[in-house]
What we know:
Layout: H1 2-19, H2 23-46, H3 59-69, H4 72-94, H5 103-176, H6 183-210, E1 219-222, H7 223-237, E2 243-246, E3 253-256, H8 258-275, E4 282-288, E5 292-299, H9 306-309, H10 322-326, H11 333-343, E6 347-353, E7 357-365
Parallel strand pairs: 2-4
Antiparallel strand pairs: 1-3, 4-5, 5-7, 6-7
Helix pairs in contact: 2-3, 2-4, 3-4, 3-5, 4-5, 5-6, 6-11, 7-8, 8-11
Amino acid sequence: MHAHAVSQNVKGRFHAILERPGLKSYLAQGGLGIAAAAVAGLVQFALRSQLVHSDYILFIPAILFSSRVAGFLAGILATIAGAGIGILFSVMISSSTRFAYSPDWFAALVFIGVGLSVSSVTALSRRRSTELTQAREEAERLSGVRSGFLDVAAHELRTPTTTLSLLLQYTERQLLKGHPVDLATLVRLRSQAARLSRLVADLFDVSRLDHHFMVLRLERTDLKLLVAECVNNFKMREPDRQLVYVEPSELFELDLDPSRIVQVLSNLIDNAIKYTDPSWPIEVRLEGKVDVIRISVIDHSVGISAEQQQSLFEPLTRGTSDRVEQASGLGLGLFISRGIVELHGGTIGVVSVAGVGSVFYFELPRSLATGKMP
Length: 374
């Protein structure tokens, strides 16, 4: 068992070297091809008494072995080395040299043509096999994502639906008894209805983006005023949070979809509120750069790891902190925001340092000021 384990370990490392692009891989493949041709040449020399002009048939297994185990380069080198070794041993066997129209030279040329064909077909087969494997793995990944999405969506939709049903039953009983419905119950009903509406709206937006059906309603907009109104709405909704808006002196008037831009900014501010400590300030900054106008939401949180940052703007992706685990949602907000910003010709991103905080930003091209979509 120990010997078998060692053998498997060595084999695994060897294949890892062969499949990794770089000098080591090329040297390993080339060495394998030449070694296979040398072995075939030695067998040819050992059987010289039984061979006439069919010497090169012994090199075909060497080419097949090299191409299959290593790759295209190994098969090519096995072919070239095999032809050279074949000619060398043919000369040694016959003890005479024949050049221009020698059967040995003609056989070598035929052999090289066959060897190149075999190596090319084998390499193409390996490539297609790899592509099929990758396609299958991607399909399985998407299937898993879809399954996970349905699970999350079912859970998130069930919660407000169940709460609404219970509140409505309570309201019905109160009315049947002739009792008035208190304001707190109505507020809870409205809150759950709004939550359900947001979830459904997110699902519709994902569907529109996926099918390229989302249409922007562009209009000339004062971006500075739009951002200020959005921040003020959050200040009224979250009076205990420290929300700071840093606005520039420059005026930014762009042709954009104001409701969609507010949706993006609201999502970034809402995430900063949900996923950071209430005592930490949140800063919203609007600034002009050379070719773009940047809107940033800055928080002083625990930060986001580099690994998580790579997938934050994919669907069903959220962080892993305790506050994130407690927050509800489908994890579609940043994915939808990315789609909206890209429809405007802009970009969205995040810069985060562990223990310092995060900066979520999106940039809109200045060309929108001229009414031209990039």
